[in-house]
Amino acid sequence: MADYQLFINGEYVDAQSGETFTTVDPATGQPIAEIAKAGREDSIRAIEAARKAFDEGPWPRLSGKERGEKLNQIADAIEAKSAAFAEMEARDGGGTIKKATFADVPSAVAAFRWFAKLATEEAEEVEVPGTPFPPSQNWVRYEPHGVCTGVIPWNFPFIMAAWKLGPALAAGNTSVLKPASFTSITALMLGEVFQEVDLPPGVANIVAGPGGTAGEELAASPLVDKTAFTGSTEVGRRIMQLASGTVKPVTLELGGKSANIILDDADLDIAAAVTLWGTFFHNGQVCESGTRALVHKSIYDEFLALLADKAGKIVIGSQMDFETDLGPLVSRSQVETVERYVALGREEVGEPICGGKRPDGLAEGLDPAAFYTPTIFAGVPNSAKIAQEEIFGPVLSVIPFESDDEAVAIANDSIYGLAGGVQSSNLDRARSVANRMRTGTVWINDYHLLSPERPFGGYKQSGIGRELGIQGLRAYQQVKHVHANPGGSRDNYIHLSALSGNI
Ligand code: NAP
Ligand code: MG
Q1: DSSP string, 86-105
Q2: pLDDT tens, 161-197?
């Protein structure tokens, strides 16, 4: 039996094939657990359970208030085990225990609570006054889609699980979620929470297994009504293709190459700290990382010196130590990808001003092949591959500019449009720049700060749709218009009297 099993129809079960896969702690390469490896047939089983729970079960028929209460119970139950969730999140994916404790687990709880509040407070039916067809009345109803599936990446596994399940369940849908193979544990642990709060069987199902089989079924199945995906743009395209077979709505949260613009009136010391935080947090394995720093020429040299100095103070080590700023990347293969891009950067622009190697002097037992130092390339033309392609590692490209207009043009010269930053002491000027950036989020004098009350998502090839905010709930709702003629008199029937007078 696997250490962590699939969660289908309210029960933990092995994969039908009996197969398992090993998940490791990337810092040490040591195995953590054996996980049941779902194949296509297990995804089908989970989808069928979700279908039955939607078509016949109580969940979509509860009031929004009742669903809100259940989501709050889920949030309470996660909070009660927050240390266990944080430890597993950090160990399995390599993010620091500090991040898991102060960001991942509380943010997942906050997302469940936000969607609980929307389920409780948002009307499911709204009257539209002022009909052109008296004496009819008209309503707009917000109804669940049905079975909603989600496929999520390894960089924020627990938050991503909450961002998919929270709104799906709040709206009265049932769901099947597939976590990334590198980081399946915390999503699978949610099954215990669902059992504790007596979530009806089949309402939320979790299948861990390869994207190419277990994942594809979730997007392709004719029993699924809506699908949501967070991950690479390449796989996002595949999800869209698979979903098109049954014309399913898709929500896609994809890659990014976000620009953080440092204007010449910024407080340089703070802006340098924000830039490093905006790029290197979680080793740059964040879709909205500010991986292009656009710096005004008049402050360029001073700013570079500040960046290099502060970058040298970042503490690299075991992710399980609260003093560590950066742990390992998610896998050795991710480090190898970063190394390929750094080699390319050396060809394109020369030596980086800092980093460019694996760290020295790691504690015994840590695998240097899983770590990489924060790396900054300066004088990068925006056309360079390291400025255009998503690296998903601790690599920053610094690009000079001379005017606000030029900064905006460089920022927007990207296939992506997920996020960006503007650092300036003049809020009006910063807002004017922010408003011209073609991205779903812009931070002024900050970076990375998201909260469930505000929408998140991308322009251009960074995705389709929004998660969080009220928009995040609407993405999981169908919209129905009901026109009601009270009837009783021939005169009431517009189509009879005005348009089809002969019948
Ligand atoms: P990925 O390769 O796209 O994988 C994401 C998820 O999709 C994983 O669960 C993966 O399963 C699954 N998958 C892979 N191939 C699939 C297929 N053919 N059909 C269905 N599912 C499939 O991305 P990743 O390497 O995990 O994450 C890094 C990427 O995600 C980056 O490009 C980053 O920008 C993006 N990202 C975007 C956001 C956002 O909000 N916009 C957030 C986080 C990450 P396996 O794990 O089994 O391969
Ligand atoms: Mg792992």
Answers
A1: HHHHHHHH---HHHIIIIIH
A2: 999 999 999 999 999 999 999 999 999 999 999 999 9
Domain ranges of the chain: 43-254+462-482, 259-444
Query: Residue 502: which residues within 8 A CB-CB, separation 6 or more?
Result: none
pLDDT in tens, 37-95: 999 999 999 999 999 999 999 999 999 999 999 999 999 999 999 999 999 999 999 99
Measured distance CA(70)–CA(9) in Å, rounded: 17
Catalytic-role residue among 89, 217, 253, 467 = 253
Atom of ligand 1 nearest to the CA of 151: 9
Which ligand 1 atom sits closest to the C-alpha of 235?
3
Q: Is residue 287 flagged as an active site residue?
A: yes
Homologous superfamily in CATH for domain 43-254+462-482: Aldehyde Dehydrogenase; Chain A, domain 1 (3.40.605.10)
CA 211, CA 216: separation in Å to the nearest integer? 6
Tell how many helices (H) and how many strands (E) occur in the chain. 17, 21
User: May I ask the CATH class of domain 259-444?
Assistant: alpha beta
User: Which one of the ligands is nearest to 152 CA?
Assistant: 1
Pocket test for ligand 1, best of 22, 92, 151 (most atoms within 8 A of CB): 151
Query: Atom 31 (ligand 1): residue with closest C-alpha?
Result: 232
The CA-CA-CA angle for residues 9, 211, 157, to 5°, reads 70
Question: Hey, how many other C-beta atoms are within 10 angstroms of the C-beta on 309?
Answer: 11
287: Cβ below 6 Å to ligand 1?
yes
Cβ–ligand 1 contact at 112 (below 6 Å): no
The reported pTM is 0.97
Q: Which bound ligand lies closest to the C-alpha atom of 417? A: 1
- The answer to whether 253 is a known catalytic residue is yes
How far, in Å, are 118, 228, 426 from residue 148 at the CA level? 18, 8, 44
Kindly report the protein residue whose alpha carbon is nearest to atom 32 of ligand 1: 232
Q: What is the mean pLDDT of the chain?
A: 97
Residue 233 has a CB neighbour count (10 Å cut-off) of 19
pLDDT digits (tens, 9 = 90+) for 132-149: 888 899 999 999 999 999
